[in-house]
Fold this sequence. Notes:
Elements: E1 14-18, E2 31-35, E3 41-45, E4 48-55, H1 56-63
Antiparallel strand pairs: 1-4, 2-3, 3-4
Amino acid sequence: MSDHKPYDETHFQGMISYEKDVKAGMMEGDIGVQISKDGRVWICVDGVALIRFMPKSRYSKKED
């Protein structure tokens, strides 16, 4: 029995920022995903944000 919660594939349009330079290859480590109520997403590796995502609806409001 696995203790991992499955997530269905989902797609969103928005701004993606890469927070670190990443070299190609493999490493052992911890990966975390956090999704806020307003749709922002953080993907972290070993506790450090690697990729951040802000949905288009969130940054479009700032430009109005």
